[in-house]
């Protein structure tokens, strides 16, 4: 039956317009700590103060007292747009070098200081126009953060030498292998940019650069780049968070005031030649599904036409409510996915349409339909509803970006560089509010013409890469005269500043109440920004799949947004889009979740949609067949991605054949094909029940407001039929093989999953276990990652962790290593594991890794989504609410002895199973040479040949 059209959902927080909330959504009674973001007179604004030191260093203060945190966000105004010819990837390589050490912070110690202070979100990134460096610290570490950032900018130059350069060249080349060459469609995207931009244009190469250029960079080139661009007069620091502005100004002057200004960086004057005839190319890659990419040059960021094309991107492919998704994925069922974006940059933006085809679908047919839709949009303006959906989504995403001080700081820096105004948010939103639908149509007609585009067809086949560039031996000594200085040494900087008095470490508490039908409601109020997140969590995950129907839990959850008894999939998508909200459903190993996140003004309609999805699914046959085809294609896509395949095989060998968690979460081809409406409805009736569910809510809602929302929507919910017996999962039965090799011919890296069963949630030594793991492989500064990445240059990153569930537990070390060092990497990994079990950590290491768990807690619960995820996972694992608020006490009690005991009892090297997904011809001899004769599986992770395993 056709569902009735939903009543119009009005967006209540208009873009740059009047703020009008209904009575039920009035601000909560609790007074929120003062934040930097305001909506006075209905207009979004970010309170800030900007000043410049005498050396040209820009500083922007964003005072925000919502949490005891300060975000440190340093932008250097240099990226690939500033690279010389033949030096692609230079700016990104320099980003890596900035973490390698400085005069007053020895190599490898920078991130350790951040860990020890309880830092979160510590990283750097490079895009075509800038490079940024960021971390967030507890507010009592303001001086420490400024000391670290100043030393990076002013004295990193002193420590650049052949050894540090060679190490980071290895790391960056591993990153290229992982993110471009061993990722589906990575080489396709690179080819598109090379077709869009001519030789010599700074956007032509991918940000990461080529192997040849990365390896050819010389020490002199690095120093010249630093002298030109890494100077205080070409950088901006944003401090956002809980600080006293007067104190912050004094400390900024102290730490950055003596840095010497450099020459004015040269202006970038690059013209982007107009494309006047369509450019077409075919790229083969190690992929299962073909892909169509259409790309155009479009106006630069914030220039006329940029906002119009951003709206057009949302209309065409901005989500499930978009035209191309509805046409290609839902109606014609030719596409697995559709993504459309206006990639705004300073020199020239790129409008991109990306369509992944279903198996057997014609890319020619897809292109014809896409062309027709573009032509229709060029001739006929989008509807007011389509424009409203796009505006609402853009605004909500912007609000959510301002919720977290880390991303708020980066947004301010973004506006400062790209718009010349740190407080540009109001004008940014005003661009969209001022647009008429006809403006969008006219801009599409002007820019998205066939003769102005690049068409890239990606097809399965052999991946064609540039000639192999050898990795030279790592130098071991620093030559005389290699090290120089830009700024005079200042002896006082060698001593890290002491922390100020810490504020009490508290985490967002939650309360719960239970409806008469047994539904648990968990509520963590967070007044402030008008945002709300919610998750309906059900004991309906992979663990309760019938033995003969693997994948049923995931299939059931996937069906929820595809239609209810009163709404079609299109109406559900349009309803959530008009709210500017996200509404998703998925199943995990032990739970299923239906998630909502959006503005407070959208909460009533958003909760109604969430309830409709969970309580009234239609399970229509046409929708089932469509999702069935989508999940079959997803199985094929999983084979493309070595890390996903390693994880899937890792679960199989950990839990053992026949265990519900050993099966692929998607199911098998046979089980997917066999699932029908009867199976789906039966699973839903058995497991989607109020007494087996919790609604977890965080955000700007009081308990009274929440009860007023929840009672009418969920109070009458009753489970259908008899409740299922509460059975327990069988114990894990790991396979006998200790090494499993999945053949992926030609792979430039080996994806590793080193796995074993682990303890369940609530284990008494959980805190000790997590602190021990932080030292072993959980942190960037961990023993395994330091040895394999920073010392040996084998990997871009490799990490370990424990998954602790209600009835499941797993330990895993996961990452990708260069193919030719697979065996050597495993040898080093085992040395670190044995070392972790051999003796207790020293006081310095223990304090660092314990503080990294303990003091970082406020930064790990700093958004509504993070709070909801924390309490939802806690409920799913069967733990009391206090398990979260008691974390500080538990971490604080960990000792070196308790961490060592956890390592000895929970980390048995003899139980670890190595799953390696890589090129068998190159990897198997290495494994056998270290005494690991593997069981070899085929490309799908199924038995190909069996040999004695060790």
From TrEMBL:
Domain Peptidase M16 N-terminal span(s) in chain numbering: 59-197, 527-639
The keyword Flavoprotein is annotated on this UniProt entry: no
Organism domain of life: Bacteria
Domain Peptidase M16 C-terminal, first and last residues per copy: 216-392, 675-852
Pfam families: Peptidase_M16, Peptidase_M16_C
Keywords: Signal
InterPro entries: Metalloenz_LuxS/M16, MPP/UQCRC_Complex, Pept_M16_N, Peptidase_M16_C
Record's signal peptide: 1-25
Family that this chain belongs to: Belongs to the peptidase M16 family.
Protein name as catalogued: M16 family metallopeptidase
